[in-house]
């Protein structure tokens, strides 16, 4: 009965806007929650009041602030937020006033307590795929309130860094939303992030590609989207380190770097010259390379298609002299043993052996039988 009196007073706009009455109602509800377990009924009734009356946005925000800071009823606040987020998308699509009230209340809570906004983001994530654009704007606004919380920290854990990247991916996807108001809201949040220097370096090129180009936000049909796209791009250019330099200073930096590049190229050329030894200090062949060169030259095919070692080479002068000595010895043996028949037979056998040896030697030196006969004829003519 007492709680119903409080809820009935909250329906009256003038009574709910009074600070003293609001403070008394907050204390009364806190006592009912602590002593009589009125938390679930209180959350349901306050959600229904927020759905029906627009002035309950400010009133309920003050209740939440008192519950968090004075009464220490954080669990009740989380339960109330879950109750609001549990409304179906079909009901919100039919009731535009309730959607607007819920969106305004959730944005106020996320702006005042980013930790609470971060805790309800998993519950609000499916709202990004639903039709009411007010709820999509609400979710993007909560993301915009949570992201600066990561930017204010000097170092992020891998888990926090991953969460920040996922939120930025969601925000980046809705730059091309089907609704112009949602696109403008996403670009407005990007502008706020860039202005507070919370944009990671690796995201700058991706965001620039979304802003500039034939499909970029600068060419959007919505004037609000184009306005925030221009503001975002201007903020990115102004925050660039090169934007503070004049053209003369930029030219000086360019000339300095060009001179440095030329000096590095000269050092590289000099190091290459020193690394290559002079031709006079290089031995043309190693001992093994000489043998390999001879063997390769012997096996090199001739124009006839036969290997080089099968071809007969022209006899040299020492070979000719050796052949002549052998022939003269044979003639002396024949002259000394011409009278004795037995010795003649032995001499013939020896001559046959000598002939075989001579033939073998002649074959080794490259002679044929016809060439040896020609040599004998030449010796007789000389004699």
TrEMBL record:
Residues 294-383 are annotated as: Disordered. GO terms for molecular function: histone binding. GO terms for biological process: meiotic chromosome condensation; mitotic chromosome condensation. Keywords: DNA condensation. Residues 311-334 have a biased composition (Basic residues). Residues 340-357, 372-383 have a biased composition (Acidic residues). One of its GO terms (cellular component) is condensed chromosome, centromeric region. SUPFAM superfamilies: ARM repeat. Residues 359-371 have a biased composition (Polar residues). The keyword Transcription does not apply. InterPro entries: ARM-like, ARM-type_fold, CND1/NCAPD3. The keyword Nucleotide-binding does not apply. This is Condensin complex subunit 1.
